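Posting for a labmate who doesn't have an account.
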Amino acid sequence: MFFKIKILYYFFKIKFERIFQLHYSKTYKKIKIFFFLKKLSQSSFYSFLNIKKSRFIDIPIINKSIFMKNFDLINTCGITISQANEIALYSEKSRDFSSMIGDVSVGLSSGTSGNRGIFLVNESERAKWVAYILDRVISLGFKRQKIAFFLRANNELYESAKSKFISFNFFDIYIPFDNHLKRLDDLCPSILIAQPSILILLAKKKEINKLNISPKKIVSVAEVLTKEDKEYLQNVFNCKISEVYQCTEGFLANSCSEGYLHFNEDFLVIEKKYINNEKSKFHPIITDLLRESQPVVRYELNDIITEKKNCKCGSKFLAIEKIEGRSDDIVILLNSKGESVSIFPDIIRRTIILSDSRIIDYAFIQNDNIFKLYIESSCDESFIKAKNALVKRFSEYNCNNFEIVQISTNKHKIGYKKRRVINENI
């Protein structure tokens, strides 16, 4: 009961901040940052900080490798990486995700590349997370919401949302997919949450009448949602697709009324590391002011973000035009002058999908100067069309020293984030 009261407290606090426009106030944000930095001294990794004199630029930028290497020093719970690993791996093998260390929940993330990440959240952090999800994703009301979420792993973080107004139902994606269909139909969820690759499988089942659900809201998570996949899903389910940008590092962004993701800048500090001359694409460097048990401070993600200016929804929070994937998956070639040329994943994706409307799925994998191209289509000619389109696209960059070969299967496995453009050289 006390935990439910905490959720309601934070939920109404969010509403209060919005009513009085505090979530846009720079002064209010500075106060939050001050108290966050004060608590940060509890982390051995950041104990060097002089809180009164320190500025954000004095704090070192870290990445996933540094974050995991210094797990024991960064977290403020006294939990070691071996303890966390033991709990997380037990949960993965047993598929029982109720184990915790004290009041701290341990979660395991496979990551986009399959590299393991571990996150810790205490009871207050879980309550805050639930409050923000209720406010920005689920839209809490007096009508009972039945939510179906397909994920690789359940966690106390998700189970915390259960109440008389919300029925949260976990569907384990490691269980044979067809085994879920009857339970899903019986549940008849009002909200469906899953990664795009799972949503597409569900849409295909619905098209052949093996699934009869008609959710009022669908939320895409975990993977990049491409424009073509979004359009396909909206046509099949006849409802808008919302997105949540969330990873091991926290709840980062959610869709607005116009369908664009906005960073949650009321509790995030977002710095931009631009990666192109036009300063339109960047890596986000994030600081999460809600995280205490495992502080996330000036943490650089290698996701490629294209910034959107002046979103029509009216939100002042930083908007995202699109998430293009990871910098690790930028295609790199040498042109005729021997200069290195970088081609963003979204350019590859659009080139392939626009080459033939009959293409259903695809994957493009770079290994040195050899590209493996997987095309799923109702017509064998689609591969040739996609290949020719890519050759033409690369020639625009004056790149001709490469080979494109056909592969018959896609290496994607359920349980891992789907990547359609992969650079195996990095």
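Reply:
Got it, the structure tokens are right above this. The chain has two domains: 2-326, 330-423.
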